[in-house]
What we know:
With about 170 residues, this protein is α+β, with helices and mostly antiparallel strands. It has one domain (about 5-165). It contains five helices and seven strands. The protein has helices at about 5-20, 20-25, 35-45, 90-110, 130-140; strands at about 60, 65, 70-75, 75-85, 115-125, 145-155, 155-165. The protein has a five-stranded mixed β-sheet, with helices on both faces. It has a two-stranded antiparallel sheet with strand order 1-2. Strand 1 and strand 2 (about 65) form a beta hairpin. Helix 1 (about 5-20) packs across helix 3. The radius of gyration is 15 Å and the shape is globular.
Amino acid sequence: MTLDLNTLAQGISKHVSTCTSARFLCTTQASFESWFRVELVPILVELGIDYKTVSPDYTYPGTRYKADLVCSGEGGRTLIELKSFVSGQDANKKDRYPEQIERLRSLLARDASVGQVITFTTFQEYSPRQITTLIGRLFDPSQWSMVGPIPVVDEYPSLQFLIAGITKVH
């Protein structure tokens, strides 16, 4: 099963808006990548992914690098990388994230068992211009389908997210 990026984005916003921690998550200038990693699981299950196929334990072949989440379905495995950017705190992330994105893209091209790769990127306290500039550096729109940037929760617009993905055409 491949995930529809629009449906995934809607699921994220819907789920987070029901969490009692949403206000803290969306208004605190901190990185909550691990929180999103955990909270993506019930969203994936609600979208039809079998809970037993979701794992935080995927190592890229021939490397020591791990993907944040992997799940399996009819269309092969889907790998998901998460990155949370916080204004003024991101120098190292901005250098490393392009490598992670390329690892995903390259794996999709090489590995027949991988049917889809997805990134989930958040931007805390970034201006629209900063977000647009960073997205332009990270994702080639001729390769990546994108949804966003949009607020994680509408009433707290300082935390935006972008879903980007590539689905293998069989």
